[in-house]
Amino acid sequence: MTERNDSLVAEYLARVSRATAGLPADRREELVGDLREHIETSRADLSAETEAEVRGILDRLGDPAVIARAAAEDAGLPAAPGGVSDVVDGRSPAGPSRRRRVWLVVAILGGIALLLLVVAALFFAHNSEGGAAMALITGAIPGG
């Protein structure tokens, strides 16, 4: 059981190390060392170490990608390409920032479509007989 738990801890620390690849080497080593020390202390406090308890310790520490972003912010580095990578276990999550960009593009396109509809309505109203619709829209007085 201990070998399996040691393997879980090693895998977790390797994920943290990969996620913090954009940090300076000394900062990354310090972070991984601090995590290792915390894990060892927590494991030593267990009365009977089980895989579930070790997983619980790792879960409480948090996702390596979140740890990497926090460490990058502390170091004043961007948490994006060029800084700390969001890629963990070969997957690049579509985080909130990507969703916000998609919604922003949708909102801009919707605004443009609405603007085009208003301009088209004004154009056709102006070209219609008597211009009554245009007068209602613009507040102009026909024939005045």
How does this model look, in words?
The structure is a single chain. By secondary structure, the chain is mainly α. It is built from six helices and no strands.
Task: Present the secondary structure layout.
Blueprint: H1 2-19, H2 25-44, H3 51-61, H4 64-75, H5 96-127, H6 132-138
Question: What does this entry show, briefly?
Answer:
This protein has helices at residues 2-19, 25-44, 51-61, 64-75, 96-127, 132-138. The protein is mainly α.
Stretches with pLDDT under 50, minimum 5 residues: 80-94
Largest sheet: none
Coarse shape: elongated
On the 0 to 100 scale, the average pLDDT is 78
Structural class: mainly alpha
* Helical run tally: 6
Distance between the termini: 93 Å
Number of strands: 0
Key structural traits:
single chain, 144 residues, elongated
